[in-house]
Amino acid sequence: MTPTFVEIDWVLAHREDASVRVVDARSMPHGAHVAGASTGAEQYAAGHVPGAVHLDYAHDLADPATPYATRVAPAEAFARTLGEHGIGDGTTVVAYDDGDVPYAARFLWMCRYYGHDAVAIMAGGFKAWRAAGYPVTTERPSYPRSTFTPHTRAALRATREDVLAIARGASDAQLLETQRDKTYAMRDRDIAGARRLSGNALLEDANGGRVARPERLRQLVDDAGLDRSKRTIVTCGSGVSASGSYVALLEAGFTDLAVYDGSWLEWDHDGLPTVPKNAG
Fold first, then answer.
1. Which pLDDT tens digit goes with each residue over 46-102?
2. Is the dihedral of CA 30, 36, 40, 42 positive or negative?
3. How confident is the model at residue 280 (pLDDT cuts 50, 70, 90)?
4. Residue ranges of the alpha helices (H) in the chain?
5. Which of 18, 26, 23, 66 is nearest to 43 (CA)?
């Protein structure tokens, strides 16, 4: 399997390889209307890694059947979109974001869910790229259409029914609420049965969105009393922080890990069981 992270020097050296495609995954949180904030497409248009294509998790790669949430697009639609951007079965993909909100991790999880393991995250994100003085362009590349063949790995994706079983006490799987601290603070309730584990702590903003160092990661997992071998489902607001937590917990040694794709947006929309925060 391709390493989860590659350094910016690797991307600089390989960005023109025909078998490598760089994806600018910068996006805006689903439903967000922040004054002065730019959409992912606007950020991309203002400057990106040369040769990179842009794919927004909430617009280009989301299921239109659930507009209230950002579940991954069905296999056929996902494959078509990637193919249209020159990403095929033999393509090594490197995704980047700004090194804070883990949009690149969301893209990585979606690719792995559909069976494509040759995908990595550019460590440090676009901020690290610019800080190194590497080239930036506003030109949009054009690539020949490719064939992306999805092979769905159902075990990597948790459904509302899977989480509902935990909330009702019918499943002993571990459910972790990993929404990023700032947006999590805006909520007053949790999914019943969830334990809190900060997505900001698992993927450190100050470290360019890299996984926390091994000793810190081990402490976070042990302090939460988690079993690395047990079925574990990560959730958040819209599936983005959960995807970052998926990456981090794999590094921590978890062996049966899934993302609740609908996350809080779906759970709250459907009126499913909640408890006050910190109530267990």
1. 999 999 999 999 999 999 999 999 999 999 999 999 999 999 999 999 999 998 899
2. positive
3. very low
4. 8-14, 40-46, 75-84, 103-113, 125-131, 160-167, 181-184, 199-202, 214-223, 240-251, 263-269
5. 26
Q: Is beta strand 274-276 parallel, antiparallel or unpaired with respect to 5-6?
A: unpaired
Look at the chain and report how many structural domains it folds into. 2
Encode pLDDT of 199-210 as tens digits: 999 998 888 889
The whole-angstrom separation of Cα 11 and Cα 16 is 9
Please name the amino acid found at residue 221: V
Neighbours of 186 (CB within 10 A): 8
Q: What is the mean pLDDT of residues 32-45?
A: 77
Total Cβ atoms within 10 A of residue 151: 10
Locate 115 and state its tokens.
């069976």
Which of 73, 24, 25, 1 has its CA nearest to residue 240?
Answer: 25
Rounded to the nearest 5°, which phi and psi values hold at 26?
Answer: -60, 135
Tell me the C-alpha distance between 52 and 137, whole Å.
Answer: 9
Domain housing 222: 155-276
15 and 140 in a single domain? The answer is yes
Domain boundary among 129, 152, 175: 152
Question: Is the same domain home to 221 and 269?
Answer: yes
Q: Which H or E element spans position 11?
A: helix 8-14
Q: Is 165 helix (H, G, I), strand (E, B) or coil?
A: helix
For residue 175, the domain's CATH number is 3.40.250.10
Residue 165 phi/psi, 5° resolution?
-60, -40
Residue after which a domain boundary falls, among 124, 152, 180: 152
Residues 146 and 165 reside in one and the same domain: no
For the chain, how far is it from start to end, CA to CA, in angstroms? 37
